[in-house]
Each structure stands twice: as C-alpha cells, then as structure tokens.
Amino acid sequence: MPSFVKFLKDILAKKRRISDCKIVVLTQATSDIFKYGVQEMMTDFGSFMVPCSKGGMDLGQALCDLGVSINLMPPSIFKK
Questions:
Q1: Torsions phi, psi of 8, nearest 5?
Q2: CA distance readout (Å), 61 to 49, 64, 71, 80
Q3: CA distance 30 to 38
Q4: Burial class (CB in 10 A: 0-12, 13-18, 19+), 18
Q5: Side-chain half-sphere of 60: how many Cα atoms within 13 Å?
Q6: What's the superkingdom here (predicted)?
Q7: pLDDT for the residue numbered 16
Q8: Phi-psi region of 55 (alpha: psi -120 to 50; beta: other; left: phi over 0)
Q9: Is the pTM of this model over 0.70?
C-alpha cells in the first residue's frame, strides 16, 4: 500500500491526528486528485451492443469493448 494512502486512511479513521503528522511529498497524480476531486460513480447502463454485419450479411448484435474491466456471467450462475 502506498504511504500516502495509509497516511490518509489513518487520518480518516482518526488513528492519527493532523498535528502528529509529518510533511508528505505529493506526486503529480496525488495532487491531481486533490485538484479535481474524485469522480462520482455512475449507474450501470448495461452492456454496450452495436449492430454487426459483414459482407452485406447481418450478424445481429456485438458486444463493444469500452476498455473497462467487466465480468460477464450467465444469468443461471448469477441467480445462484
């Protein structure tokens, strides 16, 4: 766990008081978090499907890769 994450968790969990803390050097990534804030979670819009055809033949719908990490499972396993 990066030191700044542990540092912030300790402060938020009230395990450490700010007066007891030392100066922490922030990287560009961490300073951007404080500058722009953390984005809110969006609702799940389901799977992103696009019509697919090849050579004039309609192949139906295809699942589009949005570049995010997702896990797909059959409904029968989800219901268990």
A1: -70, -40
A2: 6, 9, 19, 27
A3: 11
A4: exposed
A5: 2
A6: Eukaryota
A7: 64
A8: left
A9: no
Give the C-alpha separation, 13 to 79, whole Å.
36
- The pLDDT assigned to 39 comes to 64
Domain positions in the chain are 3-36
Tell me if 48 sits within 8 A of 63, measured CB to CB: yes
Write down the pLDDT at residue 32: 67
Measure the CA–CA gap between 23 and 9, rounded to whole angstroms: 16
What pLDDT is attached to residue 70? 64
Instruction: Single out the residue of 29, 21, 32, 24 nearest to residue 3, CA to CA.
Output: 24
